[in-house]
Structure formats: structure tokens, C-alpha cells
């Protein structure tokens, strides 16, 4: 066990661990969350209680959770990874049976007062498991077809469940999150090249299968694709959201219309403005400066994570960090790509900014584990 | 499983490589996003800003106040009045429209049926569309609703302007009316102004209101309002009031019009008064009339049907739309044509035995016993038909028609009125084209006495009389000033008729009134300064059948109304220095001298006197009757209507 190789004396213990947290990262996360509070206050029309206040409470809880998790030694995470993965898989299956209906897709599980989306949880569990897998696997075997097939199956099994819900956004995130860990673990680039070709072929197949009995996606997903390709086709129907979002975004200009002055969001032209489309509100009210500064903050978070991962000599910690950072990256890349019209609308929140409990908790948990890897890294 | 330090080193080096590679890829994605943001927010910001403004800022039109219309003396004849109404928006009513309506019905009268109608309308319209609950409320009702507003969610008291015609019936045909813009109206207008789309906006549908729409409409104002995506107004950003439409002054004298309206009474009739020096129309009266205010407010189908089905056709403007065989009044044209052609002169005589046989057919004079020897003046004085039969054969129809057109018959006079009829001054070419038949001599004889194919409107008869009275090419005019700028007329050209011939015709008209045996002597004016000249006309609306002829002449009174003769009369005065010409047509009224002439004389007298004429102007025997008639009339005071009712 690699953990036993560490020079235990140099690992911080007890409350001293808090000094060894990746503090710049904590502050960056806090800064990003503040963007969220400000924007939620704004989209509620200057009302603090509607969205901003619950969001702040959740964030506080999430931060405590994150720091708490950072204190947990690495071996524990590695140890629970298989269990966490299996548990999530069971929950995902359960969603199919007892899942509540939300926004046209079954995603929520309802246990008394707590409602959550197991698919969100799976994002972290998958990363955890893959990191543990590659830590366990002999590095010389990573590109061996069999040892490649195992993680692929580990990724595709939950993805299959999520697809059935159906939740295209989360499916994409599971696949890309998993792929990033595999990539970091050193799986031969040829596999990736192969997969990209395969995806290209699949996309062709999906598009070709449309309106046939073999149709691979739901009609609404096809419409989203159509809308993505040309939102102007149906500016008041399916293209409405994306058209209005782009108008809001583009009309921001350099410095935006000013705090609480965005006409698009103020006047309800924006759909889901407090969740998936909150970036457009930011872009409308604070312009290019506001939007690009958030992008820079996100990039810095990724940068700090990658730096932490590269400098971490523990393979598990390093892969976990890259996996968490990768998931986070996919989150905001998909959301921003979506609202700027580069990607189709798949329904994914802006991490740490959008209103919503599960995604924030999961992300902060992920960062907690990543912090644990940082704190407990071998020195 | 343990690893050698070398493996670990190798692994970690690979990890660093992959990590950096991953970072590079992610940086690439971030750059892409950044560039995209730059493209949208910096490069194309203006386009999106425009789209965004279009989304949220809507231009709402403020309907302009319609231009006022005055008569020649400055009396307001079409104005705007405050219209108080209440509207209800379903969205604001909290969904319970019915209980709001019930509460409202305690403040203003509202029937169950009306309530049901409204509820149906609410269920059809969008929740944010305001629906008019009640219109034309009194100030008391309006203020009681305003006071109770808190108990009536969604109810908005509004005030706007709506058209009002203070003289209601008197000027209905001249002014026409305004009413809501229909789809048909829109389909006829190229590039309709956006203001026309406003649900409450009204445009001129008839008469001056329709023809002078461009002047009267004004320019819409604008309100810039911020709306949310369901179209609800959030706030007003700016407001630019519209420009009221131009003020029109008509040549009409509202007082005279009022008198004429009452003088025509219940007859189906028309009267036209024209200033023979300028062509200004002082009176264009068509009877019976209707209340244009009803059309503005939305006429009930019952009222509308009764107007449509009335056999006196109240909706038709008989002064310009109605065409009638002018009967003997047309003899002015025939005589003048003969004199101008030189086929006769003042002394030429024809013998009237009571009929004339032409081509094996007998054409009768109205006087069975005949008039004996007739010269030009006498032919008018006695209205001898045979004289004109003889004349027509000599002068020919083409020259008669040419003279008729010269005098304004069979010519469309351009006035800002609806459906102006052209009338017919028939000639050979016309009949060939119309019926593909050759002109018959009988046609000429009929035309010479204003029967047969000849058709003229009361307006044309008035113009003809004015031209005969002055020898000038009088063109009728209805607009005196636009926005205070007088609509000047150029010097009227000469008619191009020998003044001696004209004098002869005028003398004949004088004889009709003032000679001892003139056909309209009883309707003469005895006041010498207003001495009047005229010509009667009685036109058949049916052919007298052989059977009827065999039974003897049937008197008018025995016939059903719609088969009786039209009574016509044209006149001008003063004889020596003509000022005004009048034409009167009484549909199925009977004889021109008995029915139309007294009316025309009275209207002419009123015009000359500038008010109720002195009784001494008419023959003594008629003064008592005239006084009684004056007393029975309820004339408008010559003062403008009371202030406050109407406003700019």
C-alpha cells in the first residue's frame, strides 16, 4: 500500500491539518460562490430571501462539509470507493423505481426530508472508484485492452442508468469525468483517438436514426439538437430559451447593464434564470468583464487543482484531484458552452453559482476529498 | 502490490505529462469560451442590445385627437368628447372575473346578458388583454368606480376622446361618421399606419370624415414602455403626445342646414344651396337623415336594419348620390343649347297643339289642350313640352348633351363626399356604348324635357342653375379652410355662352316665378330685392301604359308612393344680381310647382335673409301658413353649442 510508504511524521495530524489545506482554492471557491449569491439576489428582483439566502446556508454547510472531509485520511476514501460506487449504482437503479418526476426526467430520490439526485453523487463516486482502480492497477498494464475495458464498463454502467432517466447532461459528464481520469492515468492516446472516432460514428448513427423505429434519442433531445444547430428556426418554441439567453448575454457588452438592470432577466424573458441560465444574467448585468472574470476564477480553480495533482506523488490523490477538477471543468464548460450557443441545451447548472443544493453539495464534497488528498499528500 | 521507485518515478513523470496535457486541453476550451464571449459581448453587442431592447421596450401608440370640423360661421359640427369607460384585465382580477363584475354591477347598470357576454369574451381573450366593460359612463358613475377601485381588482377607469356630432341629424350625410377600423378598411389601405391597429381607434367611414381622413386624423403620439415577456407593462419610459388632426372649416352653414332639414320634414328629399359667385355649398341636405353619433358608438343591428329597410333610404346622401330624371328643369339646358346653336332665337316660335307626332308616335305636352304659339321665354314660363320636342329635332341630342355637360349635368363634381354620382347626359355615342343601339328621335324628344335617359343629381341641378345664373364655370366647393388657411379658388372662368342667350334663359326663369301665368307663381318672392327666378320639374318614374292612357290620366295621389312623380325645382336669387342658387328634389312628391317650389323658395329665403325670413317676402296668402311653420320649427340657436361638452 502506497500509503505505508509515506513518511508518516511529515503528514500533518489533528487540527494542524487545517493549516495544510489548499487555501487559495478555498478562497477561489468562496469567490465563485459569491458571484452566485449576488446573481441570485439580482434575479430574485432584489429579494434576498428567495434564492440567495438558502444558497448561502447551503454553501456554509457545504464548506463545513468540505473542510470536514479534508480531515479524513486518504486511505479511508480509497477504502470506501468501491462501496460508494456500488451504493450509488443501487440508488440510481432505485430512482428508476421510486424516483420522483422532476422537469420531465426522473432524477430525484426522496428519503423523508432529503431529496437528492443519485446521478450527481455518482459523478464523485465514479471518480473515486477510477482513481482507486488506477492506483491499484500496475501502471504498466493501464493500456492493456482488458484493463481498459474494466474502467469503461465502470463508466458506462451508471451512464446507462442516467441515460434511461433520461439525463443527457449528466451522462455526458459521467463519461467525460471518467475519461479524464483514464487519460490522466496514462491510458494510451490511441484509445482516446479510437473513442473519438467511435463517437463521431455514433453521432452520425444517432442523427441518421431519427424518425425511424430505431430512433436512439427522445424527440425532445432531437429538437434540442435542431435548436442548437439553428435556434432561429423556432424562436418562440424550442429555440426560445437559447435565443433569449444569447440576447441577454450579447446585450451585456463590455461592462453590462449594471447590477439589477438587466432587462432580459428582469422582465422574465430568460428561462430558468436562477439555475441553468444564471450565467446569462451575470453576462447581461456585468458584461464581458463580469463573465470573463468568472471564467478566469474557474480556470484558476482548475489550475490550482492540476498543480496540486501534479505535485502530489500519491497516485490515488493525484488522480482523484484531476478527476474532481475534471468533473468541475466539464460542469462549467458544458453550462457556458450551452448558454453561449456552442453546445446544445442539455440542462446543466453553472457549478457553485446556480441555485440548487445537490450539485453544490456534491461539488464541495468532491473538493473536500481533493483537499484531503492535498493535505495528506506524501512529503 | 509494491512498486519500485523507478516505476513510481516513471509513473509520476507520465502523470505530470498527462496533467499538463489535460491542462492544455482545458485551457483551450476556456480560451474558446472566452473568445465566444468576446465575440458575442464585444463584437456583436450592438445587435444583441437591439434585440434585447426590442424584447423589453415596446412602443405603445397614443391615438391623436381627431381634427375638429366647423361650419362656415365657426360653429362646431364635429368635435371630440371625453369618453369615460372602464376596462378589466383578467390577470389582475385574480382569476375571479365574475365576482368583480357582480360588484361592479352595483355601481353601473349591467344586465345579466351583458355579463354573460363579457364572461365569454374574457374566456376567449388573453389574460392581459384589457376588455372594455362599459363605455360612455357619466362622470358620477366613473368617479364612483374610481373611488371603489380597491374593491374591484383589475378594473381600470380610463378616459379617452371619441367623436361627437353636436348637430347629429343635420349634417349626417355631409360629415359622415367615424367608426372602428374594420379588416376590410385595412385591406384597402396600403401600408396602414400602426395607429389604425389600435382596437379603439376610429376612422372616417363616410362623407367628409372619410374623404378628409388624412387631414383629420393627426399624428399618433408614442409611449415607450417596458414590458415583460407576457406583454404586461412594467413602467413607462417616455411619452410623446400625438398631434391633433387639422381643423376643417366647411362651406356649409349649419343654421341653414338645420332649417332645410326641418323644412324637408319627413319627405324623402334633397336640397342643395350653392353660392353662385364662389361655388361654395351652403347646404347639402338629404332627408330623412340619421344620427351619426349612433354609428360612432356602435349602432345596434336593430337600428341599423331599420335604417337599411326604410323605404325613404335615410342612409343615402340624395344630394350627390341620388340621380333623378331632371324633368322640365332640364329645359334650361335644351333651350340654351338651341340658342347657342343658333337654330332658334328669342323670337322663334313653335306651335303647341298639345302633342307632337314624330315617326308615327305621339308625344304629349303636359297640357293636353296645348299652349298655342310659344317663344323661348314663354316655353319656360309655361314649361311647354312640344316647344322642346320641336327644338330637340332641330338642335340634335349631341349638342343638348354637350350643353348639359357644360352646365354640370352628367359630370362628376369632385367633392369630399362619398359615392358622388355622375348622372347621365345622354348622346348618340353614349347609347351606342351602353346599349349597343342607335339613337332614336324619340330618345331626343324625351331627353329634351329631362326624361328618358337623362339623370341628374340635386347637386348637378344646383350647379347648372348657378352656371345659368352667372355665366361662370361654377365648381361646387365644400372645404372653406384647412387649419385656418382659406382654400382659395382661382378666378372662375367664363362658361363661354353668349350673355344674350343666357339673359334670355334667365328671363324665362323669371317669368316662371313672376309672370301672371308662370308655373311657379305661387312660390314667388314678393320682396323685390330678393326677386327670384326658377324652373319647375316633374319627372315621371314610370311609363304611362296604354291602358292607363285609355282610362285617362291618373292623378298622383291615387298611385302608391313609390310610383308617384318626383317633384323638382331649381331657382336662384336675387334675379338682378344672383347670389344663391337652390335645387330641391322631392322623391315621389308629385308636382314640382306645388311641392318642390315652396320648399326651395323657403330655403332660398332663409339663405338670403341669413335666418328666418320676414313673412312679407312671400305672397300675402301664404304668410299665415309660413308663420305657423316657423313656430313649429325648433331651430338651433346660431350661437356655438355650450362649452365643455366638446373639446379639442
Broad shape of chain A: globular
The N- to C-terminal Cα distance of chain A equals 16 Å
Q: Please report the number of helical segments of chain B.
A: 23
CATH class of the largest domain in chain B: Alpha Beta
Beta-strand proportion of chain A: under 5%
Strand order of the largest sheet of chain A: 1-2-3
Q: What is the CATH topology descriptor of the largest domain in chain B?
A: Beta-lactamase
CATH architecture of the largest domain in chain B: 3-Layer(aba) Sandwich
Low-confidence stretches of chain B: 640-648
**Global outline of chain B:** elongated
Estimate nothing, just give the exact number of structural domains of chain B. Answer: 2
Assess the beta-strand content of chain B as a share of residues. Answer: 15-25%
Radius of gyration of chain A: 21 Å
What percent of the residues of chain A sit in helical stretches (DSSP H or I)? 55-70%
Structure in words:
The complex is a heterodimer of chains A (379) and B (648). The relative contact order of chain A is 0.16. In chain A, a hairpin with a 2-residue loop joins strand 2 and strand 3 (114-116). Helices cover 67% and strands 3% of the residues of chain A. Chain A has 379 residues and is mainly alpha-helical. In chain A, strands 1-2-3 form a three-stranded antiparallel β-sheet. Chain B folds into two domains: 60-89 and 101-250, Penicillin-binding protein 2a (Domain 2) (Alpha-Beta Complex); 254-291 and 315-479 and 491-632, DD-peptidase/beta-lactamase superfamily (Beta-lactamase). Chain B is elongated. In chain B, strand 11 (269-275) and strand 12 (281-287) form a beta hairpin. By secondary structure, chain B is an alpha+beta fold. In chain B, helix 10 packs antiparallel against helix 22 and helix 13 packs across helix 15 (385-395). Chain B has 23 helices and 21 strands. In chain B, the strands form six sheets. In chain B, strands 2, 3, 4, 5, 10, 17 and 18 form a seven-stranded mixed β-sheet that branches. In chain B, strands 12-11-21-20-19 form a five-stranded antiparallel β-sheet. A three-stranded antiparallel β-sheet of chain B has the order 1-8-9. The chains are: A mainly alpha (379), B alpha+beta (648). The interface between A and B is large, with 52 and 46 residues.
Amino acid at each position: 500500500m502506497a500509503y505505508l510508504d509515506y513518511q508518516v511524521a511529515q503528514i500533518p495530524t489533528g487540527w494542524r491539518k487545517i493549516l495544510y489545506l489548499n487555501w487559495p482554492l478555498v478562497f477561489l471557491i468562496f469567490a465563485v460562490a459569491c458571484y452566485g449569491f449576488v446573481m441570485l439576489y439580482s434575479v430574485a428582483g432584489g429579494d434576498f430571501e428567495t434564492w440567495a439566502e438558502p444558497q448561502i446556508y447551503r454553501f456554509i454547510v457545504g464548506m463545513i462539509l468540505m473542510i470536514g472531509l479534508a480531515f479524513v485520511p486518504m486511505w479511508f476514501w480509497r477504502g470506501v470507493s468501491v462501496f460508494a460506487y456500488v451504493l450509488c449504482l443501487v440508488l440510481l437503479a432505485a430512482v428508476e423505481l421510486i424516483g420522483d418526476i422532476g422537469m420531465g426526467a426522473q432524477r430525484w430520490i426522496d428519503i423523508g426530508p432529503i431529496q437528492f439526485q443519485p446521478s450527481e453523487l455518482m459523478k464523485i463516486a465514479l471518480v473515486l472508484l477510477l482513481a482507486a482502480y488506477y492506483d491499484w492497477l500496475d501502471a504498466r498494464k493501464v493500456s492493456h485492452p482488458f484493463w481498459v475495458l474494466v474502467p469503461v464498463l465502470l463508466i458506462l454502467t451508471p451512464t446507462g442508468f442516467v441515460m434511461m432517466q433520461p439525463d443527457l447532461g449528466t451522462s455526458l459528464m459521467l463519461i467525460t469525468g471518467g475519461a479524464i481520469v483514464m487519460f490522466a492515468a496514462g491510458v494510451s492516446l490511441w484509445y482516446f483517438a479510437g473513442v473519438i472516432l467511435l463517437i463521431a460514428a455514433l453521432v452520425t448513427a444517432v442523427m441518421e436514426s431519427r424518425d425511424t423505429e430505431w430512433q436512439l434519442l427522445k424527440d425532445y433531445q432531437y429538437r434540442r439538437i435542431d435548436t442548437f444547430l439553428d435556434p432561429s428556426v423556432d424562436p418562440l418554441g424550442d429555440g426560445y430559451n437559447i435565443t433569449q439567453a444569447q440576447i441577454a448575454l450579447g446585450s451585456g457588452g463590455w461592462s453590462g447593464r449594471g447590477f439589477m438592470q438587466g432587462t432580459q432577466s428582469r422582465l422574465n424573458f430568460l428561462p430558468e434564470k436562477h439555475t441553468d441560465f444564471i450565467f446569462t444574467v451575470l453576462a447581461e448585468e456585468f458584461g464581458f468583464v463580469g463573465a470573463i472574470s468568472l471564467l478566469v476564477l474557474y480556470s484558476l480553480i482548475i489550475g490550482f487543482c492540476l498543480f496540486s495533482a501534479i505535485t502530489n506523488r500519491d497516485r490515488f490523490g493525484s488522480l482523484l484531484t484531476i478527476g474532481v477538477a475534471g468533473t468541475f471543468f466539464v460542469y462549467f464548460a458544458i453550462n457556458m458552452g450551452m448558454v453561449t450557443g456552442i453546445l446544445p441545451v442539455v440542462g446543466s447548472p453553472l457549478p457553485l453559482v446556480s441555485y440548487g443544493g445537490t450539485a453544490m453539495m456534491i461539488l464541495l464534497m468532491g473538493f473536500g476529498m481533493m483537499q484531503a488528498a492535498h493535505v495528506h499528500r506524501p512529503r | 502490490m509494491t512498486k519500485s521507485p523507478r516505476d513510481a518515478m516513471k509513473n509520476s513523470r507520465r502523470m505530470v505529462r498527462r496533467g499538463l496535457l489535460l491542462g492544455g486541453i482545458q485551457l483551450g476550451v476556456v480560451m474558446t469560451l472566452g473568445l465566444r464571449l468576446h465575440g458575442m459581448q464585444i463584437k456583436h453587442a450592438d445587435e444583441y442590445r437591439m434585440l434585447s431592447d426590442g424584447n423589453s421596450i415596446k412602443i405603445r401608440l397614443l391615438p391623436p385627437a381627431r381634427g375638429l370640423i366647423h361650419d362656415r360661421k365657426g360653429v362646431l359640427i364635429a368635435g371630440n368628447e371625453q369618453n369615460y369607460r372602464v376596462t378589466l384585465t383578467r390577470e389582475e382580477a385574480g382569476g375571479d372575473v365574475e365576482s368583480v363584475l357582480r360588484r361592479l354591477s352595483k355601481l353601473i347598470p349591467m344586465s345579466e346578458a351583458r355579463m354573460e357576454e363579457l364572461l365569454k369574451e374574457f374566456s376567449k381573450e388573453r389574460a392581459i388583454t384589457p376588455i372594455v366593460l362599459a363605455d360612455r359612463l357619466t362622470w358620477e358613475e366613473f368617479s364612483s368606480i374610481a373611488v371603489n377601485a380597491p374593491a374591484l381588482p383589475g378594473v381600470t377607469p380610463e378616459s379617452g376622446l371619441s367623436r361627437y356630432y353636436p348637430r347629429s341629424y343635420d349634417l349626417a350625410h355631409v360629415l359622415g361618421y367615424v367608426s372602428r377600423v374594420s379588416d376590410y378598411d385595412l385591406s384597402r389601405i396600403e401600408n396602414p399606419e400602426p395607429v389604425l391597429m389600435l382596437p379603439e381607434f376610429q376612422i372616417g367611414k363616410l362623407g367628409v370624415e372619410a374623404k378628409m381622413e388624412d387631414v383629420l386624423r393627426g399624428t399618433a403620439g408614442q409611449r415607450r414602455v417596458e414590458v415583460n415577456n407576457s406583454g404586461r407593462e412594467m413602467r413607462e419610459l417616455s411619452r410623446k403626445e400625438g398631434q391633433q388632426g387639422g381643423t376643417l372649416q366647411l362651406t356649409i352653414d349649419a343654421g341653414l342646414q338645420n332649417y332645410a332639414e326641418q323644412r324637408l320634414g319627413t319627405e324623402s328629399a334633397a336640397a342643395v344651396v350653392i353660392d353662385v359667385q364662389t361655388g361654395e355649398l351652403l347646404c347639402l341636405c338629404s332627408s330623412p337623415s340619421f344620427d351619426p353619433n349612433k354609428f360612432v358608438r356602435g349602432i345596434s343591428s336593430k337600428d341599423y336594419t331599420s335604417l337599411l329597410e326604410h323605404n325613404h333610404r335615410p342612409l343615402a346622401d340624395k344630394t350627390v348620390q341620388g340621380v333623378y330624371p331632371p324633368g322640365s328643369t332640364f329645359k334650361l339646358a335644351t333651350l340654351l343649347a338651341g340658342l347657342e346653336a343658333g337654330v332658334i332665337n328669342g323670337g322663334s316660335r313653335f306651335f303647341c297643339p298639345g302633342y307632337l307626332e314624330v315617326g308615327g308616335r305621339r308625344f304629349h305636352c303636359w297640357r293636353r289642350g296645348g299652349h298655342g304659339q310659344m317663344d323661348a321665354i314663354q316655353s319656360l314660363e309655361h314649361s311647354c313640352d312640344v316647344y322642346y320636342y320641336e327644338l330637340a329635332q332641330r338642335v340634335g341630342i349631341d349638342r343638348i348633351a354637350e350643353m348639359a355637360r357644360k352646365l354640370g349635368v352628367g359630370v362628376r363634381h369632385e367633392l369630399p363626399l362619398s359615392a358622388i354620382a355622375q348622372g347621365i347626359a345622354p348622346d348618340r355615342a353614349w347609347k351606342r356604348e351602353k346599349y349597343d343601339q342607335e339613337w332614336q328621335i324619340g330618345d331626343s324628344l324625351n331627353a329634351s324635357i329631362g326624361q328618358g335617359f337623362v339623370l341628374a343629381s340635386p347637386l348637378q341641378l344646383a350647379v347648372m342653375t348657378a352656371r345659368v345664373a352667372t355665366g361662370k364655370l361654377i365648381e361646387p366647393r365644400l372645404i372653406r379652410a384647412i387649419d385656418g388657411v382659406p382654400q382659395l379658388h382661382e378666378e372662375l372662368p367664363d362658361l363661354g355662352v353668349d350673355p344674350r342667350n343666357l339673359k334670355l334663359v334667365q328671363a324665362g326663369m323669371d317669368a316662371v316665378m313672376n309672370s301672371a301665368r308662370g308655373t311657379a307663381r305661387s312660390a314667388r318672392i314678393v320682396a323685390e330685392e330678393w326677386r327670384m327666378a326658377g324652373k319647375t320639374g316633374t319627372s315621371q318614374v314610370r311609363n304611362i301604359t296604354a291602358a292607363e292612357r285609355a282610362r285617362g290620366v291618373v292623378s298622383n295621389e291615387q298611385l302608391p308612393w313609390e310610383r308617384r312623380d318626383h317633384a323638382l325645382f331649381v331657382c336662384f336669387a336675387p334675379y338682378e344680381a344672383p347670389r344663391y342658387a337652390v335645387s330641391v328634389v322631392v322623391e315621389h312628391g308629385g308636382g314640382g310647382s306645388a311641392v318642390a317650389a315652396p320648399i326651395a323658395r323657403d330655403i332660398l329665403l332663409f339663405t338670403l335673409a341669413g335666418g328666418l325670413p320676414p313673412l312679407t317676402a312671400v305672397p300675402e296668402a301664404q304668410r299665415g301658413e309660413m308663420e305657423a311653420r316657423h313656430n313649429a320649427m325648433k331651430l338651433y340657436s346660431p350661437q356655438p353649442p355650450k362649452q365643455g361638452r366638446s373639446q379639442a
